[in-house]
Amino acid sequence: xxxxxxxxxxxxxxxxxxxxxxxxxxxxxxxxxxxxxxxxxxxxxxxxxxxxxxxxxxxxxxxxxxxxxxxxxxxxxxxxxxxxxxxxxxxxxxxxxxxxxxxxxxxxxxxxxxxxxxxxxxxxxxxxxxxxxxxxxxxxxxxxxxxxxxxxxxxxxxxxxxxxxxxxxxxxxxxxxxxxxxxxxxxxxxxxxxxxxxxxxxxxxxxxxxxxxxxxxxxxxxxxxxxxxxxxxxxxxxxxxxxxxxxxxxxxxxxxxxxxxxxxxxxxxxxxxxxxxxxxxxxxxxxxxxxxxxxxxxxxxxxxxxxxxxxxxxxxxxxxxxxxxxxxxxxxxxxxxxxxxxxxxxxxxxxxxxxxxxxxxxxxxxxxxxxxxxxxxxxxxxxxxxxxxxxxxxxxxxxxxxxxxxxxxxxxxxxxxxxxxxxxxxxxxxxxxxxxxxxxxxxxxxxxxxxxxxxxxxxxxxxxxxxxxxxxxxxxxxxxxxxxxxxxxxxxxxxxxxxxxxxxxxxxxxxxxxxxxxxxxxxxxxxxxxxxxxxxxxxxxxxxxxxxxxxxxxxxxxxxxxxxxxxxxxxxxx
Length: 574
Prior knowledge:
By secondary structure, this protein is mainly beta. The protein folds into three domains: 6-30 and 365-572, no CATH class; 39-222, no CATH class; 233-361, Immunoglobulin-like. It is 6% helix and 39% strand. The protein contains four helices and 35 strands. A hairpin with a 6-residue loop joins strand 30 (460-462) and strand 31.
């Protein structure tokens, strides 16, 4: 049994942190992804065989749909690096259908097509009609992904690189100065130039000191090396797919490592996403990013709206970490509305150009919110008294649940654990009986001791939202144990006469009413980070009117702060 006891109330604050971590993990694992930033890249192709490198996914349509308006494209081959492969049916420079290293799309030949979508950070061969004198411009919408490369020991590496977007691409020798194996004397590099496959296509790159790397092309590197080099500067977000905040994420960290022997000036700029293609989630606006910096002198963090580019100098062979949050108070719109954009990373040496995807969803406020009211003023009924400020503020614990329909409930207690009904999912309930019998030891119980036990308060008006007002009213019966007139052991306040017979209301104690008002602030108070406000953190001003304990109403006021510890919108009311 999970008994109601003073120690369980004292454990509430510690349990909250455990609950927050647990439900955050549940949310992260099971919430749908919101990865939908878009860029359109134009590729210059010629007749015959070309290589291209997709820095983003085009999996939203099939190749038939993607190239419906490009009849000149008749074949697309995707390279599938296989580290365990020892030899190929023929040279890896020439695609061979039916081998694990290649997937193919053949226009008008679905029986032999094995390539169903075009994935990002992947190299492709594209065959066009005509000869090398024919030129084509192919626009491919895609969702950019963080860069990555895998160099495999078998020596067949078909790769592209996130070099600068402008035409002044860097030289092979400059780009690979920190990964010299890629351009060593025993390394053979090939590029495709169009025309039929054969001695003149692909051609070997003999001079890395004069050849430039086109970011839109893929190159063959024949060298037996294992590594993950993709650029002289490594841009590594704390989540592998980018800065996807979802409905409740707050901050991400991006680590940037300078592999070179010289200092580099890094430029980071917010960039808007292109409009989503037909059939994809519409993008409301760019993600309102915040940059978080740490002031060592005051040991505090500062969050600043990121609206323009900023620079950071990175020393030779060193790294920096950048932290970014999202200001959800700047995300109006319907629940689940999609915000998407990019963070663009470029460098002073014109070596790389990387677009990290950023996204967030307009958060529904459903779930369990836990926090405290800080009462700082109490109206006095004493004649002639002045001032309402208390000598010392005192807290009142708040348990507030918002269900999927938007109904807000003040709770006296709530349990998080495996529920009694099969399949025993993790959930919320208001009684211990709602938990699976054999899993109670792992459940968490939270309580608000100032409310009557087993109470769910829905009476009142208003709603939970930024700028909104929520009023909840409850009646505390004369014989409730939380009634201040009741004392279980004092004969004048136990609601019993001299023969221990029960007394009616109004004899020794009185029924009274409480009207609790929460005014939710649109923006966080000064000194509070805007990161997470409106999604994982709410607050504002509090007031309460108490009638029935005195001939005049008593009013108390203060502030409140709530943190969302679970986004589970359903609750079992036992």
